[in-house]
Specification:
SH3 type barrels, single chain, five-stranded mixed beta sheet, eleven-stranded mixed beta sheet, 4 domains, 541 residues
Length: 541
C-alpha cells in the first residue's frame, strides 16, 4: 500500500484492516516525524481519544474516545466502481469468481430479491468449470450488480462504466467507502436505465443547497439510504433529482424532524423511516399529503400517539389519502385513542402494531386482536395475519356486547329518539354507533349477562385442570355461564400465569364419560357448550 495521501483526503472514508473510519485530519503530530491521518472510527471502541494529543486538539469526534492517529500506509482509500465490479465478477486474474452470494438487497428490514442475480450466479458457476472469469461482453450483459463491501470510493474514469456495463438497472453499493453524494451521482450518470440503488451504510455528505433537476436519476424507482446520516432536509434538497421515485428507505439516520415535501416525492409509494427517533407523532402531519403513498413503515420511531385533527368521530381524514399499509410496531403507543384514530384513514388495509405498551393492556392476545379489528373498520390484515369475514363479524358483535352497558350508562338508549351517548363515550368508542347500525343495538338480554352477577344460578362452579402440567394443582372457580371462551382464556392467562402461548380449552362432564368436548369458538359463551356445575375445564398450551 502506497503511503501517499490522496488529494482531498479530509472527509474521505477509509478502511484500516476491517474497520471503517473518516479522515478528520492530515498532517504532522509533534514530536513525531512524518504525516499522520487523524481518523474518527465508525466503531468508537476502536479509538483512543477525541482528537486531542498532548494537549493539542487536532480534530473533533462525536465520541470522547472515537479517534486515533494512523499512518497513511495503513489506510485503504478504496477503488473505483469498475475495478470493484471486475474483482467481484472474476475479471482480474488473481481474483476468484464470486458465486453469487450477493443476490439480494436489504432495504430496511425488507429483502428484495433480484431475479437477474440468479441467472448471473448460474453463469458464474458454469464459467468456473470452463474459463473461471467473466468476459467483457458478459459483463456488459449484467442487469443486477452487487459490489457490497468492495471498498468502492469513486466513479473512476469518465464514461468507463457506461462502456463496460451498459445494461445495469440495479446496483447494490452498500457498505463501501463513498464519502459524498457527488460520487453517487458520478457513478449513476453513467448508468442510463438505473432503477434500483442501494447505498446504505455509507457515511457521506449531501448537498446543502437544492440540486438541479437532471436526467441522472430519471428512471430511479427504489432508493435505499439507510445508515447514511442523511437528514430529512437533505432528502428534500436531493429529491428534485428523483422524479420517478416510488420507494425510499431511510432507516437509522437520526432523523428527528420532518418538513412538508413541496413538489417533490409526489410519486412515492413506500417510505421507511424506521429506527429514527421522531420528535413526536405530529411530525407525521408534515408528510401526510404525499398523494400516492401506500405504505409507511415507522418501526421504532419513538412515537407515543397518532392523531388526525382534521376529522371528527366517525369521519375520514384527508391525510394520507392513499395509505394502505402502516407499520407502527416497537413504539410507545399506550392509548386506545391512537387505534381509534387509525379508523379515520380512508384506505388502510394492513396494520402492524405489536410491541407497544398498549399491547399490555390485555393479557390475552386474542382479545387484543379482536378489539383492534372492531375499532378499525376496513382492516384486512393485522400483524401479518389475514382477517377473515367471520372473524371480523365475531369481533364486532362481541365489541358491541362488551361495551353495551357503558353505552347505556353514557346515555345510550334503545329508543332512537332518546339515544344520546355522551361525547366521552363517542370519543372512546367512535365506531359503536356504526356497529349498532350494522347489527342493531344490543338487546337487553344480551347485556344482562354482563351485569354484575350475584344470583347463584347464574354462576358455574368449575374445576380447572392442566392435564399436561401435573405440577399445576387443580383450581376451583365460579364463572358466569354467559362468559365467552375468549374471556375465560383471558382469566386463565392471569390465574395460571401462563406465558404468551395459544391456549386450547376443552371440558369433561360426568354425563359424557370418556369424552372431551373442545371449546373451540372464542366468541361463544360457556352456556353454548352446555357446561354445568361440577364439570372440569382442561387447559393446554
Amino acid at each position: 500500500m502506497s503511503a501517499a495521501v490522496p488529494s482531498g483526503a479530509l472527509g474521505r472514508r477509509l478502511l484500516c484492516g476491517t474497520e471503517y473510519a473518516t479522515v478528520r485530519y492530515v498532517g504532522s503530530v509533534p514530536p513525531t516525524a512524518g504525516t499522520w491521518l487523524g481518523v474518527e472510527w465508525d466503531d468508537p471502541q476502536r479509538g483512543k481519544h477525541d482528537g486531542t494529543y498532548e494537549g493539542t486538539q487536532y480534530f473533533k469526534c462525536r465520541h470522547p474516545r472515537g479517534g486515533s492517529f494512523i499512518r497513511p500506509n495503513k489506510a485503504n482509500f478504496g477503488v473505483d466502481f469498475l475495478t470493484a465490479v471486475k474483482d467481484r465478477y472474476g475479471l482480474n486474474d488473481e481474483q476468484d469468481v464470486q458465486h453469487g452470494t450477493e443476490n439480494a438487497l436489504v432495504f430496511g428490514k425488507k429483502t428484495v430479491e433480484f431475479v437477474g442475480m440468479d441467472s448471473v450466479a448460474e453463469q458464474q458457476r458454469q464459467m468456473t468449470l470452463t474459463e473461471c472469469s467473466f468476459s467483457f461482453s458478459q459483463l456488459n450483459q449484467l442487469v443486477d450488480i452487487s459490489v457490497r463491501e468492495c471498498a468502492v470510493s469513486h466513479a473512476g474514469q469518465k464514461e468507463e462504466i457506461s462502456r463496460t456495463c451498459a445494461n445495469i438497472r440495479h446496483i447494490n453499493l452498500s457498505k463501501n467507502l463513498i464519502s459524498s453524494w457527488e460520487t453517487v451521482t458520478a457513478i449513476a450518470s453513467q448508468v442510463q436505465n438505473l432503477e434500483t440503488l442501494n447505498i446504505s451504510e455509507n457515511k457521506m455528505t449531501f448537498p446543502s443547497t437544492s440540486t438541479s433537476v437532471s436526467s441522472v436519476f430519471s428512471k430511479l424507482r427504489i432508493l435505499a439510504l439507510n445508515q447514511t446520516e442523511i437528514t430529512w432536509a437533505e432528502v428534500l434538497l436531493c429529491a428534485p433529482g428523483w422524479p420517478a421515485l416510488e420507494e425510499l428507505y431511510l432507516t437509522s439516520n437520526n432523523i428527528t424532524v420532518l418538513e412538508r415535501p413541496d413538489n417533490v416525492l409526489q410519486t412515492l409509494k413506500l417510505l421507511d423511516l424506521s429506527d429514527n427517533q421522531l420528535l413526536d407523532g405530529n411530525q407525521l402531519h408534515l408528510i401526510a399529503h404525499l398523494p400516492r403513498l401506500e405504505q409507511l413503515i415507522l418501526r421504532n420511531t419513538g412515537i407515543s400517539s397518532i392523531h388526525f385533527p382534521d376529522a371528527g368521530f366517525g369521519c375520514k381524514t384527508k391525510m394520507f389519502p392513499s395509505l394502505k399499509r402502516l407499520a407502527i410496531n416497537d413504539n410507545k403507543i399506550s392509548q386506545w385513542s391512537s387505534i381509534n384514530e387509525l379508523d379515520k384513514l380512508p384506505r388502510l388495509r394492513s396494520l402492524q402494531c405489536h410491541n407497544n405498551p398498549l399491547m399490555d393492556t390485555e393479557k390475552n392476545p386474542e382479545t387484543l386482536r379482536q378489539l383492534i379489528i372492531a375499532k378499525i373498520s376496513q382492516l384486512e390484515v393485522l400483524n401479518k395475519s389475514e382477517i377473515l369475514p367471520a372473524e371480523r363479524k365475531g369481533a364486532e358483535l362481541d365489541y358491541r356486547k362488551i361495551f353495551g352497558n357503558d353505552w347505556l350508562a353514557a346515555g345510550g338508549n334503545w329508543n332512537p329518539e332518546e339515544n344520546k351517548p355522551s361525547e366521552e363515550f363517542l370519543a372512546a368508542h367512535p365506531r359503536y354507533a356504526a356497529l349498532c347500525l350494522k347489527y342493531g343495538t344490543p338487546e337487553e338480554g344480551e347485556l344482562k349477562g354482563r351485569q354484575p352477577l350475584t344470583l347463584k344460578n347464574q354462576l358455574l362452579t368449575l374445576t380447572i385442570k392442566c392435564p399436561e402440567k401435573p405440577e399445576q394443582k387443580p383450581v376451583e372457580k365460579k364463572l358466569p355461564e354467559s362468559m365467552t371462551i375468549q374471556r375465560v382464556k383471558g382469566l386463565l392467562y392471569r390465574l395460571l400465569k401462563i406465558p404468551g402461548s395459544e391456549l386450547k380449552l376443552s371440558y369433561e362432564s360426568s354425563k359424557l364419560e370418556g369424552k372431551e368436548v373442545e371449546l373451540d369458538n372464542d366468541l361463544k359463551p360457556l352456556q353454548f357448550y352446555s357446561i354445568e356445575n361440577g364439570d372440569c375445564v382442561l387447559v393446554r398450551w
